[in-house]
Design goal:
Chain B: One of its GO terms (cellular component) is endomembrane system. Chain B: Keywords: Cell inner membrane, Cell membrane, Ion transport, Membrane, NAD, Sodium, Sodium transport, Translocase, Transmembrane, Transmembrane helix, Transport, Ubiquinone. Chain B: Belongs to the NqrDE/RnfAE family. Chain B: Its EC number is 7.2.1.1. The complex is a heterodimer of chains A (about 400) and B (about 220). In chain A, about 65% of the residues lie in helices and about 0% in strands. Chain A contains 18 helices and no strands. Chain A has helices spanning about 5-15, 20-30, 50-80, 90-120, 130-135, 145-160, 175-185, 185-190, 200-205, 215-220, 235-240, 250-260, 270-290, 300-305, 310, 315-325, 335-355, 365-395. Chain A is globular and about 70 Å long. Chain A starts with a helix and ends with a helix. The relative contact order of chain A is 0.10. Chain B has about 220 residues and is an all-alpha fold. Chain B has one domain (about 30-215). In chain B, about 60% of the residues lie in helices and about 0% in strands. Chain B has 9 helices and 2 strands. In chain B, helix 3 (about 50-70) packs antiparallel against helix 4 (about 80-105). Chain B starts with 14 loop residues before the first helix and ends in an 8-residue tail after the last helix. Classes of the chains: A mainly alpha (about 400), B mainly alpha (about 220). The interface of A and B includes residues 146, 158, 184 and 187 of A.
Chain lengths: ~400, ~220
């Protein structure tokens, strides 16, 4: 008797009891459900919520693997001055840091989903599959696991279950979790100590010159420091810079974006308009610097002077735009709405980045802000459409 | 006005009178059920001590104000009653403000504008309008104490969680150990939740209390 049959039997055994939902979820996660819809005509398609979620997870696998290598690479680069990228040592450091985060993220998140499903007697929803994967990718590498667990519990309960679970949340759950961490333990989520593995301990143990700096490109720019040579545009594009685990490699994020667009899951509208929005804001700032309105004495100088296209390569903006702004639940739903929504995300990301050095990466705030405004945007888009059609009707009848 | 006539026959602590104090504590709580007085509940609850002082101040202002308004209720012309009420509250709030400044100046500084803003606390005007204008002084006193205590109770609960989780202290006493010296819980890697000190978390804490209360008492759930 195979696992499938066993699960079938367990499911039958627990039907009607408290644990029905839990077993149901396990069963349908691993196999096709053994029930079909009754009556009516249905579109036959293999795409269901689980497949959508799995596609997004697949799109994130490259950045995850890269993030693991990069975690070790940045660590050794800081210690030795030079380092090879594709070494086993690098990967093992990444593995040791990222896999526990993944386990905590999925363990706590899915645990809460199961509890809620059991108590509320509804099916376990698949929404957390993507969130659980996103969460480790947007964290600094040395984040203590208990903090992650608390934040995941908060994000899933307050950010999602209270609104009614998957499909009802107004905010992106992964970003809710990150925002919670950011405001709760800012010392672990920002600054120049947390972005390279070992930097926190290193500062404590080694004093003076040997201390590891865990700074990011944006952090250095916000502090008006000159950038090291190995943080040039090419390395930012390929991802050999410090940062949150999964967000450094713009190249691999683009691969993920292409995959999402080809499979029809991520909205190309949102991604493109967000990139345009960010570029527009970046160009405005570059223009301000070119017009000599802002000089080198200003504390915003470095960030404003940073070329607009390079703004897109550093920090979490690419990752946010591709994997989080496109979250179908919290994004705008109408086509025009998506364009406005995406544009404003890009626009505000750069704006927050430049003007608020306390949040060197603005994309988190920008997406959360626009998540809140997405229904409003949709409302006005729909109203505008209604108005336009009414006008057409009037012209026709007169 | 009707039950004014038989007020003589009613014992001082009749069931109804006790209900005036008890009801607003939980089932008709001004903060969690009527959702009044939220601003100050969010603003000053980062520390338990401030919450307690604020609660006591409001109890004093509301109880005394209710009694005064109740005594004056037949003298105040209805057309200018709001102004008259404001004068009474303002006088009482100034008493509280000056007392705090005289005896606990540090805390008075922390509570800053919020003591003055007791004047605009909706609970106070609400009770004057809804109760003191139509009831005798003793009942008004009980109602004032009950409502202000209900408000204070929520303040203290929110303040308890915010100070405990936000600064690891209660009434300024370090409960979890010293965060700088890394003793107690901090030695295990615990760190204070800075978010708890910010107003959004007060709102979320309050929301959780409201949700918890409504899950226990289904009759409070609105049906719209």
């Amino acid at each position: 008797m195979g696992l499938k049959q066993n699960l079938h039997n367990l499911k039958e055994k627990y039907r009607g009891t408290k644990f029905e939902q839990g077993f149901n979820a396990l069963h349908t996660f691993l196999y096709l459900p053994n029930t079909t819809t009754h009556g009516g005509t249905h579109v036959k398609d293999a795409t269901d919520l689980k497949r959508v979620m799995n596609t997004v997870i697949m799109a994130m696998i490259p950045v995850l693997i890269f993030g693991m290598f990069n975690a070790g690479y940045q660590h050794y680069l800081q210690i030795n001055g030079t380092a090879e990228f594709l070494t086993m040592d690098n990967f093992i450091i990444g593995l040791k840091k990222v896999v526990p985060m993944l386990l905590v993220s999925y363990g706590v998140g899915l645990g809460i989903e199961f509890i809620f499903a059991t108590v509320k007697k509804h099916e376990v929803e698949e929404g957390y599959l993507v969130t659980g994967m996103l969460v480790p990718l947007i964290m600094p590498v040395d984040l203590p696991l208990w903090m992650l667990a608390v934040a995941v519990a908060f994000g899933v309960v307050i950010g999602k279950e209270l609104f009614g679970g998957t499909g009802m949340n107004i905010l992106n759950p992964a970003l809710t979790i990150r925002a919670f961490l950011f405001f709760n333990w800012a010392a672990w989520m920002s600054g120049d100590k947390v972005w390279v593995h070992g930097a926190v301990d290193g500062v404590k143990k080694i004093s003076g010159t040997d201390a590891i700096s865990g700074e990011t490109v944006l952090g250095a720019l916000a502090a008006n420091k000159p950038l090291p040579e190995n943080w040039d545009a090419m390395n930012s594009f390929l991802g050999f810079i410090p940062g949150s685990i999964g967000e450094t490699s713009t190249l691999l994020i683009l691969v993920g974006a292409a995959f999402l667009i080809l499979t029809g899951i991520g909205s190309a509208r949102i991604m493109l308009s967000a990139v345009i929005g960010a570029a527009v804001m970046g160009l405005i700032f570059n223009g301000i610097v070119d017009a000599n309105v802002i000089t080198e004495s200003s504390k915003f100088y470095s960030l404003m002077n940073f070329p607009f296209w390079q703004h897109l390569l550093v920090g979490g903006i690419a990752f946010g735009i591709v994997f989080m702004a496109t979250d179908p639940v919290s994004a705008a739903q109408t086509s025009t709405g998506k364009i406005i929504y995406g544009f404003l995300i890009g626009f505000f990301s750069i704006l927050i980045r430049v003007f608020n050095p306390a949040y060197p990466e603005g994309v988190m705030m920008a997406i959360l802000l626009l998540n809140v405004f997405a229904p409003t945007i949709d409302h006005y888009v729909v109203q505008a459409n209604v108005k336009r059609r009414m006008k057409r009707l009037k012209v026709k009848t007169t | 006005m009707a039950d004014n006539l038989n007020v003589e026959k009613e014992p001082l602590f009749s069931k109804k009178n006790i209900g005036l104090v008890k009801d607003p504590l939980v089932d008709n709580n001004p903060v969690t059920v009527q959702v009044l007085g939220i601003c100050s509940a969010l603003a000053i609850t980062a520390e338990l001590k401030a919450s307690v002082i604020m609660a006591l101040s409001v109890i004093f202002v509301l109880a005394a104000g209710n009694v005064l308004i109740s005594l004056l209720r037949n003298l105040i012309p209805p057309s200018i009653r709001i102004i008259a009420q404001l004068v009474v509250v303002a006088a009482l709030v100034i008493i509280v403000d000056l007392t705090l400044k005289a005896y606990v100046p540090d805390l008075a500084k922390k509570l800053s504008v919020f003591v003055g803003l007791i004047i605009t606390n909706c609970i106070i005007m609400g009770r004057f309008e809804a109760f003191a204008l139509g009831n005798g002084p003793w009942k008004s006193f009980l109602d004032g104490v009950g409502n202000a205590a209900g408000y204070g109770l929520i303040l203290v609960i929110v303040g308890f969680f915010r100070e405990l989780l936000g600064s690891g202290k209660l009434f300024g006493f370090p409960v979890f150990g010293d965060p700088v010296e890394k003793t107690g819980l901090y030695a295990l890697g615990y760190e204070n939740n800075g978010f708890m000190l910010l107003a959004p978390m007060a709102l979320i804490t309050l929301g959780l209390i409201i949700g918890f209360q409504r899950s226990r008492n289904k009759s409070l759930i609105e049906t719209n």
